[in-house]
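ok so I'm stuck.
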Amino acid sequence: MRNRRLTEPGVVGSWVAMGDFDGYVHALSTQTGELAGRVSVGGGAMFAPVQTTSGGALVQAGDSSVVFIRLN
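replied:
not stuck anymore, here's the structure
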């Protein structure tokens, strides 16, 4: 995760989610800290912190689009 310019994280259940400068959202396990998944949401660099809901995370991409990600 070094040099990815991460956003402030958000905790969703047993996951910690954060966005990065390349438009990816990363999910880490709160128990082990290991990377559990990564998804590109497009739209370029993310600067806004991840917003959490009971069902997942809302992220805002660099092009101002908002994406909901469900974390299972």
